[in-house]
Each structure stands twice: as C-alpha cells, then as structure tokens.
Design goal:
Layout (H helix, E strand, L loop, with lengths): L20 H4 L17 H10 L4 H18 L12 H10 L6 E7 L5 E8 L2 E11 L2 E5 L3 E2 L17 E2 L2 H15 L11 E6 L9 H12 L11 E5 L6 H8 L2 E5 L5 H7 L8 H9 L10 E7 L7 H10 L5 E7 L13 H13 L20 H22 L1
Parallel strand pairs: 4-7, 7-8, 8-9, 9-10, 10-11
Antiparallel strand pairs: 1-2, 2-3, 3-4, 5-6
Bound molecules: iron/sulfur cluster.
C-alpha cells in the first residue's frame, strides 16, 4: 500500500505526501472491497494507519482524529472529516471505507423494538436487537458469536452450530448500525435512546473474551461512542474461570444466565453446568471485582412451565443469592418452533416474583417485546439460513431442468 501520510506530526490537519497521482494511487477499489475502519478499536486504527505508511507515533495521533469522526460523529464518508486535509481524505477513501456491514434484514416492531440480521461475510450472520424504554432509555442487545457451542435447551441459538467468534470491530459495528437507525449522532447527544449495551445476543461472550474486552474499550471511549462501562452488561451461561477476569478487564456489569437452582436440572437446561456446577459458579461470582449495591449481579431466569417455576424453587433461589448484591430478571419463555417448553402461567410468574421481592431482591418480570416482528433470539438467522438453503435447492433444480 502506498505511503498515505505526511511525516510532520505537529500539523493539526492530516495531510499526505504530494506525489503524482500515478505514483501514489491505485485504482479505487469498490467500497465493498476496501477494508472498513468503522468500529475499529483505537489501537487497531493506529495499526491500520501504520500499515499505510505512518510512523508509530504519527499513526497513534492520527488514529485519534479519525476515531472521533467515525465513532463520535458517526460519519460514513471521509469527505465529511473536515479537519483532515483533502488529499489525505481522498487517499483514505481510495484505500479504506467507513462502511457498515450489509444488513440482511431489519425489522421494526409496533412497540419500537428493532431487530437486525447483519451479514459480516458469506454465511456469517448475527442478530442485534434494540429494546426501547428499558429503565429511562433503551438497551441494545449485541451478539458476540455466530451460533453457540453451549446448547442451552430453552435457547433457539443453542440449536445452531458455532460458525465463529465475532471480531471486536464486528461487535462495535452492531452499535454503529443501531445508532444510524436511531439517528443518534453525535454520540454524546442529549436524551439518546440507546444508552445501554447488553451482551445477551447470540453466543457466549466469555468464550470470546479478548474480542469482547476490546469492543468494550471502544464502546466506553469518551472520545468515541461514550457508553459508560456501568451501562454495559455482559451475560454468561457460567464460564466460571473467566468471570473474575471479565470484571478485571472490562469493568462491565455481570449477568448470569441461571435458569435453575439445582445442579441436576441446570445440567439439563444449561449444560455448561456439568463442567462448572452451581457451587463453582457462585464462588466465581463472589470473586467478581467491585460488587456492591450499586454494582449488582443480574440473574436471568427464564420461566418454564412445570420445569423450574415452583415456589419451592423461588425460595431456593433466595437462599442461593444470599449475601450477593443481586437482582433477578424473570423472563417469560418465548416459544419457538420445535421447542419442548411452554411458558409458565402469569399467576405463577407473579407468585415467583413476590417471593424474591419479599426477600429484598428486585425481580422485574420482563415484558415480551417485539412479538409482532420476531420470536426467539437466533430465529431470524435460522430463517435466513432456511431461505438460502431453499434458494440453493431451487437453483439446483433449475440447473438440472
Ligand atoms: S443461552 Fe446463550 S450460551 Fe446458552 S445456547 Fe443460547 S446463546 Fe448460547
């Protein structure tokens, strides 16, 4: 790649060495072929600029300027980066893009919930969901993997094989896409709806901790996307050895996908429990750095009729949570085709919640959202795969005909 940048790091505007165009420029590649800088972490951005010819020191400084445009202003066109010289912008545009990944499907619910199926490459699709009006503002549920290895039996994503981990950049671009749709640029605008991030989409974040941690650094960057670490929650099915490390590396809030209070039942519903049982899990939770009433652990508990919803289990849950600053999200099960479970009756969910509330644990019952546009997490991707398999079969038949 040609040298893109001038060598004087003291200039405020970015500029390039002015060589004749024939010496410096390759024919511009199509936008889809140029690597995108959008969503890159600051160190990755610096590395990309260094690869393009800047010294390490220059690249570090220029990366900060480009990052501000990409993640604070949300621009998708280098031409809009007005404190960067024209020549530099044009070279950036010839070699990189600021494009988002392709959106395969975008659905908007009557209740304001939005869901995207994002295509990161051939056969690499993951889901992202924006849920408005959680607390004062909305939360974006992001995916960390395409598919999952953990096979939780109530989870539709658990029926899909793991394709691969998402990169840190791919995780961050999910947030860029949501901000684009919500029109929430610059990133520090007042009353923004997208205020919180939850890693509760497809995949087990602690099996992709390096990338999740790098993505959180980018999301929390005050010069970029400006989402405070206390507004970012990472949910795990129970990869116990990585739990304290998650806290130390990210400062994010912790959520545990619990769903059962006995090992025999949890072994079945959340099979990673066979590897890290409840005792091991709770020892790891207690070691999470900085736990306090201001930094509580969220326990997610999906309500499965006749499986985990007895009032005795609610009382056992209270015992299990003893001395842990915690709240419990009770999630009415959202059935998907082929599941063996039903959702608990509303009265039972209410009674379960009352026991927890009386013991001092806030236990909101999550209202089903966006039911007119989608069912369970992971279903959009399955539907997309089915459509593409059907399209391939159809194409094969057409070729044979
Ligand atoms: S609940 Fe989470 S960890 Fe379990 S299968 Fe689904 S995506 Fe994977």
């Amino acid at each position: 790649m040609p040298q893109l940048f001038e060598s004087d790091p003291m200039k405020t505007a970015l500029d390039i060495q002015h060589k004749p165009a024939s010496e410096t420029r390759q024919p511009p590649a199509a936008a889809a072929e140029r690597p995108s800088l959008a969503g890159m972490s600051l160190p990755a951005l610096g590395a990309a600029l260094e690869k393009a010819g800047l010294t390490q020191k220059q690249a570090r400084m220029r990366a900060q300027q480009v990052r501000r445009w990409l993640h604070h202003a949300g621009v998708q066109d280098f031409a809009a980066m007005t404190n960067i010289s024209k020549a530099m912008r044009s070279e950036l545009g010839a070699n990189y893009s600021a494009a988002r990944p392709e959106i395969s499907t975008h659905q908007l619910s009557r209740d304001g919930t939005q869901k995207w199926l994002i295509k990161f490459g051939p056969g690499i699709e993951a889901e992202t969901v924006f849920i408005p009006a959680v607390a004062k503002s909305g939360a974006l549920c992001v995916s960390s993997q395409v598919g999952c290895t953990l096979n939780c039996t109530f989870c539709h994503t658990g029926t899909q094989r793991l394709v691969r981990n998402l990169t840190a950049q791919e995780i961050v671009t999910q947030v860029l896409i949501a901000r684009d749709a919500l029109g929430e640029w610059p990133a520090d605008m007042e009353n923004r709806q997208l205020s919180n991030i939850v890693f509760m989409g497809m995949g087990e974040p602690l099996y992709n901790l390096d990338n999740v941690s790098e993505a959180i650094d980018t999301l929390a960057d005050g010069e970029g996307l400006s989402i405070g670490r206390r507004r970012i929650t990472v949910s795990t099915a129970g990869v116990a050895p990585k739990i304290p490390e998650l806290g130390a590396r990210t400062g994010a809030l912790l959520a545990i996908s619990l769903h059962a209070v006995r090992d025999d039942l949890r072994d079945e519903i959340v099979p990673i429990n066979r590897k890290y049982d409840l005792q091991t899990l709770f020892e790891a939770i207690k070691a999470y750095p900085g736990l306090s009433n201001a930094k509580r652990v969220t326990f997610e508990y999906v309500m499965l009729k006749g499986v985990n919803d007895s009032l005795a289990e609610a009382r056992d849950l209270v015992k299990l949570l003893s001395r842990i600053p915690a709240k419990v999200n009770l999630i009415p099960f959202n059935p998907w085709p082929g599941t063996i479970y039903d959702c608990s009756e509303p009265d039972r969910i209410e009674a379960f919640a009352n026991i927890l509330n009386r013991a001092g644990y806030a236990s909101p019952i999550r209202r089903p959202r966006g039911q007119d546009i989608f069912a369970a997490c992971g279903q959009l991707r399955s539907d997309s795969e089915k459509i593409s398999a059907a399209a391939k079969r159809k194409a094969g038949l057409a070729l044979q005909a």
